[in-house]
Fold these 2 entries.
Entry 1:
Amino acid sequence: MKKFFLHTTFIIITLISLSAQAQNKISVTNLQCEMLNNPEGIDVVQPRLSWQIKSDVNDVKQTAYQIMVASTLENLNANKADLWDSGKVTSDASVNVFYNGKKLGDRQNAFWKVIVFTNKGEIKSTEKAHFSIGILTYADWKSTRWIGYEKLSKDDSVSQYSRLSARYLRKEIDVKKQVKSAKVYIMGMGLYELYINGNKIGDQVLAPVPTDYTKNVKYNVFDVTSQLKEGKNMLGTILGNGRFFAMRQDYKPYKIKSFGFPKIALQLFVEYTDGSSEVIRTDDSWKLTTDGPILSNNEYDGEEYDARKEMKGWATTNFDDKNWVNARYVQEPGGFYEAQMTPNMKIMGEVKPISIKVTAKGTYILDMGQNMVGWLQLKVKGKSGDQITMKFAESLQADGSLYIANLRDAKTTDVYTLKGEGEEIWEPRFIFHGFRFVEISGFPTKPTLDNFVGKVVYDDIKTTGTFESSDATMNQIFKNAWWGISGNYKGMPIDCPQRNERQPWLGDRTTGAYGESFLFNNQTLYAKWLDDIKYSQTQDGGLPDVAPAFWRYYGDNVTWPGTYITVGDMLYQQFGDKEVIKKQYPSMKKWMVYMEENYLKGDLMDKDKYGDWCVPPESLELIRSKDPARLTDGQLLSSAFYYQLLNIMKKFAKIANADADIAHYDDLTTRIKKAFNAKYLNTTTNSYANNTVTANVLPLAFGMVPENLIDKVFQNMVHEVEVTKNGHISTGVIGTQFLMRTLTNFGRGDLAFKLASNKTYPSWGYMVENGATTIWELWNGNTADPTMNSQNHVMLLGDLLIWYYENMAGIKSNPETPGFKQIIMKPDFKAGLTFVNASYESIYGLIKSDWKKSKNTLEWKIIIPANSSALVYLPTANASDVKVNKGKVSKNYKIENNKLVLELSSGTYQLNVNNIK
């Protein structure tokens, strides 16, 4: 595997050779079903199909399409669309086009291609795509038994520091005929690895994605046709603990959920060439042992592995399993069985350590040079019984030893015992660590850097965004954000990867998910997370602060559970996904009504739990500020936020065909706005409440300020930022979500730039200056009480990444045409940067904005994907000062607020502007 480099991770799609008419000009590629590439076992019977048009010529617009779907690849190659031939459909839609053919049933295979008609001619996709339907009904799983072993082994324990050895299972099967196709449908709780004839199936790790297993259980599907042979075959699985056998058993059971012992349900569906079929299922004839080399696997505490206990060939047919026991039938998890519609995690890259130093006590400290998430692979030679211990941490103490106080009671330790047979290579299977430093003890020789490789693990989703600017601090913050976001993608967005928490807190992603969507193709991840939130809803409508609700934190709140709605809005804005809104709207409305009926008092929302979490405190040693002047009234926060959510719900009601709800939302917003200003607006000082920046930025961002006072309130807020706080951040999680965009949208992009490029406390740059390679949980994360100073969090990013792309690069989806069908390219050229080079792989294709300016001139290279367009704002009102691809501007422009606005169709453009303003 190649060494992992951030700056090379943006997507490149190669143009495909086509017919003579379109060769080297236009192609159709990236065919997707439900935004997945060739997915197996989906449970959507009317899936959405998408494709991209790639072109090296300008002004390419789709005018029509024809989709052909066949039950076999042979039929598709022969243009026999026996499932669906859409015919020529006049439409420019190339994203989320619904399949509208024959009814798709259990295990149905479908192969498809598309012919695209454009204003430049007809293009046939040389790429052929595939999807298959999974198991659609619970009854189809009925005769497939859940099996496992619900007892403790000798060294296992159920305690605060739970230990449980891995379960190994195997089953010999006899394939008596020639195989046409074979697929495995597997639910392995909590985590599994699947083997056939000794070969691991798939490159996924830590599968499946986590859920509240009492609500829903995800199954994975693999095509294993090539793995089976006629005659004897062996199925094997290893079951790890994951979130199922929880990291802390019988410890705070009122708070922490546990689901039982690991278990599995599996079907192998085989079709033979003679037309017959067979289903092999899990039952009590499978053999099982807990006496394998994985002695314990606990996400908080690490994995212990004894190579002396390895069972060579255990997943092959020639292995002697006489000492194994028969698996037991066990209770099912309780949740409904669903296809997993988002990718599993994967080893996405490698990091080579940069130094290794011996300590006074004879151990070694390994420095990876980067706070990363995953695990360490080691290579070692030694004697049988030699034991290597690796303890992971994010930073060091002054004496060079590990700093572990911020890990709380997480042990974060892997242990490997050698078998003593030449070079041994090992890495864990069922845990992950957040770390930069590793303390190595027990190594049989003097270790070198070549003995170790860091494996970077996160969801198998593409990096879609790049950003580079003239400011080095901003560039490093961007890299830190990338590492922090990727590391906290674990089948759900978690808050941190290192201590005894790692929970999917809603409030960390309220606006953060929006910024993340520029860096990663996170659509399916967040669509899945909205399901997690929906499943966590109580019957009366309440939502937790953590979902899936592994921690039972149901305290009612607005700003944290409101993420349910803001993430839905992100999926609509960034990916044009209407279906997710239609699906979630009833539950969203149920929560809004629940909050209204229980907490709306005097037309203000009187329920807040966390305040403006993590404002910079008055003392560097404090976690939370105790100064009332820094804290924002909780009723103000919850009322303003609820007002904003109501406005989003108006939009959702239209999408969900629930127009009748809009009148009620309108009535509530009118009443809340009036009561809010009556209570909190001081017309003498032109400020809200106690005049914190957060108290002022929310009503400005949400449109709650009376029109005649907008400028005065904004200028007052600017004074607080620029003078009172000396150009530094003073907001916490809530205010920071809207700070950068509000400053810029009201004309002070220069002040936003100062906040983004600051190097002194409190700022993102202060983290960089103090050695951070990810984003801290606290503005003072290097000095605060260690009980809460994770060095890999993302919640304090707020709207910074959105600002990077929309306000500095000028890559923003027009809200009127969601999903980047039309792009608004309106950088703030006067904010303080002299160049920005950014890209974003949208659902239509690559968008690029590469600009640099001098005192009076601007050079700007733009790429707009085919079948899309852009409104491009230039810093001049004089068309004669503008050149587009060296030509004059004579049409398709307008003047708006002293800016020349071009409407450009797809393609590559070189813009030159003289006499910029």
Note: Residues 1-24 have pLDDT under 50 and may be disordered.
Entry 2:
Amino acid sequence: MDRNKIHGFEFTGNDGEFRLQQPDRSSFLYFPLVNEGGMMSTVTPKLHGQVTTGHNSFLTPPLSVEDLHNSRASRNFWVYVDGKGAWSAVGNSAKQNADFYTSSTDEAVLEAGFLWQRVTRCNAEMGVKAEITSFVPSGNDKVELMKVTLTNTAAEAITLTPTAVVPIYARSADDLRDHRHVTSLLNRIYTSPYGVEVQPALSFDERGHRINHTSYGVFGAEGDGSQPAGFFPVQEEFIGEGGSLDWPEAVILNNTPEIGKGGGVQREGYEAIGGLRYETLTLSPGDSHSYIVVMAIHNERIDVDALMNKYGTSEAFDHLLEETKAFWADKVNMVEFHTGDSDADQWMKWVTIQPVLRRLYGNSFLPYHDYGRGGRGWRDLWQDCLALLIMEPAEVRSLLLNNYAGVRIDGSNATIIGQQPGEFIADRNNIPRVWMDHGAWPFLTTMLYLDQSGDLDFLLQEQTYFRDTFMSRCKERDTSWDTSLGSDLRTTSGEVYKGTILEHILLQNLVPFFNVGEHNNILLEGADWNDGLDMGADRGESVAFTAFYASNLLDISRVLRTLKTSKGQETVELAEEMKLLLDSLGEQVDYESVSGKHERLNQYYAAAPNKVSGIRAALDIETVADDLEQKAEWIFNHLRRNEWVESEQGGGWFNGYYNNDGEQVEGEFAEGVRMTLTGQVFPLMGHAAAPEQIPHIIAAVDRNLLDDKIGYRLNSRFGGIQQNLGRAFGFAFGHKENGAMFSHMTIMYGNALYKRGYVKEGHKVLESLYSLSTDFAKARIYPGIPEYINEQGRGMYTYLTGSASWLLLTMVTEVFGVKGKLGDLLLEPKLVKEQFDSEGKASIKTIFADREFEVVYKATGSLNYGEYQIHSVTLNGSEVTLQRGSGSAIIPREELLSLQTEKCHLIEVTLA
């Protein structure tokens, strides 16, 4: 093996399995290990990483991405070979690290799949090969398992002494630098016949120390279940005076454990370590021996015998590994793609699992995601549901219903999300802040649900509203409210108020229409989708999301008309106070007047000051639809007239923002071009961009934002810190929200192009992201989408990104054109030549109407999009009578519901 060559990963199977040679030659690599029960681990090729169940319960020390190569603390497995000395089977010893660039003889290969990792490391001088497999078993137990198999590769017998070592941090991430030593004094350390357990006496919190019940343990056995020979439970005694975790005295000198077989000794008040010494053994050439390591977190003292009976043998490990592989394969294979590029199809499997990982990890607990305390934000709730609608549709209706309980009566929403579905918590940080884009996302996700399901009755279901101390979009406080009053909105008579989901949707999209800045675009407030634009709260405006809200208003009006025609719904029942926002029903506001809009909004705030009357008004549905359409069309005309930036090179693009000085952000200035991708995406994705404007936008994006090295930048170089716009511009250009290739917006740009019929251009966008993500020599990431690509081409913030949901959605509904139309199945493929295989076929397996379908497209002539049309469709071999659209075909839901639910149904589409 050429140790200096950079090898990329290669797929080795049909379920996303991949192989990577010399994985420790790339920094920042890490792999997620997780289950539905709340165990959240990270593991690197050298077994660095963390093991946790939440912010306050880390088994191993919390870490950031820089700790992956700087910290000496890791899972480790040492082998002391008689006559040769100590060797780390995970590659993490002071000697191996010192020799890394010179004389090291270690050779390593990583293999991984859903969701397991195996690293095989060989050392010719030691005559040992170690194969280490790690995974978190599917299910609800909070455990991580590790199996180490040692093989003698020498020509003669060797005698070796193994020691498994895992530092046991056993407390909150808050204690990492705040009272780190003091909290170690709380440790109660127990040894049992299988390992070391720590249950701190108290949870340290100066606001009120509490009795701690959580226990953390590291246990082990030989492959046949035999107990270890002894234990090292105290870290300072294990490493020795002057020693370290990567060169510990107990291993280097092969010391006898201070606690022998059977354990039973208790220690208190020290930093703990799970040091497990196994029996010395002699291996003949070619012989192997296996060891099991179990890391566990439990809400009380651990039943060690029961734990080891379940997990403590090679047989149990191997069985659970296969069970876990099958569990994740079932989730991922709910959606499968077959194109002319098998590697791209396998890569998409890793994209498919990313929304599930984000649901389980939230936005924390992985090395790059070292912020927050767990959970997801409001925007995440809705965007993650986009993927769930495709992967786990049965769960989505209740999730959507629960999520709407977070809407406030002022059109804003809760920003602190609880652990349970529909749980929202009143502000605990006393920070009054509103992200202006939050109200736009729920309808987009709900509309996808309506199209997939045809469940228009969902709009008429009732839900509560969220209430806390903030009101008038966080501009005022309700001094009469405290936590004892609960978080449900109430009427003036004290009853909990409920409104329909439709009412919630209308409220979130009507309030922003009046909440405008001096240029008559919706105020930026705390920030929009780009959290880095967080310094324009007074005069900043988001033109981009004004376009999004306008498109929502038009689409909601169309849904209302559909409710009338398909459900016979003649009226809309709304809180009486909301009539003020439907101004065309009464005294209409002059939409050109910013002050007029503010006055009407203040009237509404005064009418619904963190409570409502409880009186409902029944409004004519057509009249409401007309009001929404009128508002939408006004915005479209306003944007096309006032926010179009003319270019000296011809054409132009949309200005996306105004800063806190009330200045237009985008345009051609003396110091250079300022342009954002966000400012183009939302006018394109909805209805704001006129058809004749689209080619000019594409040309401007290619000219100003497309970089051959890193793809589509989020923005051009603005130059200098923009304290009147946001922290993003304090970041170096080409990093994160300042000019990096930000996957989320890039994919939404591609999605928008597909929606508007620019398929060749949309494919170019998605292909660029795929190429960047899989160029291992630059990106240095495992399969999947990173949050962004930096100026060097490196993938950053892997796994937990909403862009995965958007790519999955785009591939299913736009590229393969398998989508809903108010419950019916609409087939509208937008495949390009490169996506068909050698036989002219492309296929997708997915779920629709609670049935599993494989949709196979077969082109009998041209493979170029625009040169083929749907010629015929068969369902399980029978010809389908088509309801045709332009380049599309519809299969009524009634036909689909007559099919069995237990089998996969074949839809074959002939393109001619």
Note: The longest helix spans residues 543-567.
